[in-house]
Amino acid sequence: MNIFKSAALPLIAPLVASASLLGLAACSGDADAPTEAATPTLAEGITVSNARLVLAPVAGNPAAVYFDLSYAGDAAVTLASVTVDGAGMSMIHQTMEKDGAMTMMDAEPVTLVTGTPVQFAPGGLHVMAMQPSDAWKPGETVSITLTLSDGTTESFDAVVRAAGEER
Ligand SMILES: [Cu+2]
């Protein structure tokens, strides 16, 4: 009897190294170029409420932005990036408990699902506004812009709160 015993073919994928690394520069460094020319398309179906920017207890430390977002759009989109007006850099963070301590890290892309609210709140998702502006004073507002994966944007104002205030 001719039994095909473990007929595992050596499936060695031909690693055709297409080493065309040219033209893949991610950051082209033209951040100083005027961007006014690009007219952003407004995201559809997004409603943001209860937006607030909470200053850090220590001046100069990152501030956190929280808000409630609801989505009623048809397109399958994720939150691609966020801009906090006046901040040196902004990122979407996720607070997690790790080994009994709370830490935060870059959030996985936040997918917007119609009818499913997304809450940016203390202890969870938040926007980290690095290099905060000296101009941020409690009671004033800061413009926040979300950019979705389809390139549309949604801007809203967040009220500035002092570190000791309700988050
Ligand atoms: Cu953070």
Would you mind describing this structure in some detail?
- The protein has strands spanning 46-54, 63-71, 77-84, 89-98, 101-106, 110-112, 118-120, 125-130, 141-148, 153-161.
- By secondary structure, it is mostly beta strands.
- Strands 1, 2, 3, 4, 5, 6, 7, 8, 9 and 10 form a ten-stranded mixed β-sheet that branches.
- The model is unreliable at 3-30 (pLDDT under 50).
- The chain is built from no helices and ten strands.
- The protein has a domain at 46-159: Immunoglobulin-like.
- The protein binds copper (II) ion (CU).
Strand pairing plus helix content: what structural class? mainly beta
Terminal CA distance reads 76 Å
Any idea of the CATH topology of the domain at 46-159?
Answer: Immunoglobulin-like
Total strands: the figure is 10
What form results from the Cα inertia axes? globular
Helix-strand topology string: EEEEEEEEEE
**Level-2 CATH architecture of the domain at 46-159:** Sandwich
| Number of H/I helices | 0
Estimated radius of gyration: 22 Å
Quickly name the level 1 CATH class of the domain at 46-159: Mainly Beta
Residue windows where pLDDT falls under 50 for at least 5 positions: 3-30
Largest sheet: 10 strands, mixed
The CATH superfamily of the domain at 46-159 turns out to be PCu(A)C copper chaperone
Topology, element by element:
Layout: E1 46-54, E2 63-71, E3 77-84, E4 89-98, E5 101-106, E6 110-112, E7 118-120, E8 125-130, E9 141-148, E10 153-161
The protein binds copper (II) ion (CU).
Copper (II) ion is lined by residues 93, 104, 126, 128.
